[in-house]
């Protein structure tokens, strides 16, 4: 069951859902708008001939700051990582779905490739997988509305929320865009 605006507000008031900061007017009929943070991770041109998922990939990216009123230009076919301004926290009986804003999708901006699912127990800023599938560059501004979260109630509380010791949750508590940690699966 998808939560309505009324139920989202109730869950926020109880502190079960955390969205910090929560912008004025961001609660929609069945979702909450989220914004693009000021830092993005771009992939450097490197001497690597391929991406080896068994290796730490942090050397393939660098942080770029999006300055006030000076957009980041995402070129056709480019892929970068960003994050939400908002810190998101979920209780152990709700999941969230991150979706793009339709106005941005209509110009070819995708905000996630596969990571649109937010587990129960999640705490942190969400990493965005931004790609431009249009044939023209797209501007990205710090603090722009970038996506929306909808919430779904589970049939029961989960036994092991995201971040539980036995799960090896790699991204719990992230405070900005974070590159792939898949190499840890091979350790």
Question: What does this 3D model show about the protein?
Answer:
The chain is mainly beta and 187 residues long. It is built from 2 helices and 12 strands. The strands form 3 sheets. Strands 1, 3, 4, 6, 8 and 10 form a 6-stranded antiparallel β-sheet that branches. The longest helix has 10 residues, at 5-14. The radius of gyration is 17 Å and the shape is globular. The N and C termini lie far apart (38 Å). The mean pLDDT is 95.
Question: Mind sketching the topology for me?
Answer:
Layout (H helix, E strand, L loop, with lengths): L4 H10 L3 E3 L11 E4 L3 E5 L17 E5 L6 E3 L4 E11 L4 E7 L1 H4 L3 E2 L6 E2 L4 E10 L5 E3 L4 E9 L34
Antiparallel strand pairs: 1-6, 2-12, 3-4, 3-6, 5-11, 6-10, 7-9, 7-12, 8-10
């Amino acid at each position: 069951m998808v939560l309505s605006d009324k139920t989202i507000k109730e869950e926020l008031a109880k502190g079960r859902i955390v969205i910090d900061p929560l912008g004025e007017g961001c609660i929609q009929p069945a979702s909450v708008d989220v914004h693009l943070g000021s830092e993005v991770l771009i992939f450097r041109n490197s001497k690597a001939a391929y991406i080896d998922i068994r290796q730490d990939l942090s050397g393939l990216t660098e942080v770029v700051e999006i300055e006030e009123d000076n957009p980041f230009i995402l070129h056709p076919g480019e892929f970068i990582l960003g994050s939400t301004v908002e810190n998101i926290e979920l209780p152990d009986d709700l999941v969230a779905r991150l979706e793009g804003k339709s106005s941005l999708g209509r110009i070819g901006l995708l905000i996630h490739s596969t990571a649109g699912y937010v587990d129960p127990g999640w705490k942190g800023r969400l990493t965005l997988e931004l790609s431009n599938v249009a044939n023209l560059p797209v501007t990205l501004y710090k603090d722009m509305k970038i996506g929306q979260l909808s919430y779904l109630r589970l049939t029961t509380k989960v036994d092991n929320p995201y971040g539980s010791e036995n799960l090896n949750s790699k991204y719990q508590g992230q405070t900005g865009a974070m590159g792939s940690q898949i190499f840890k699966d091979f350790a």
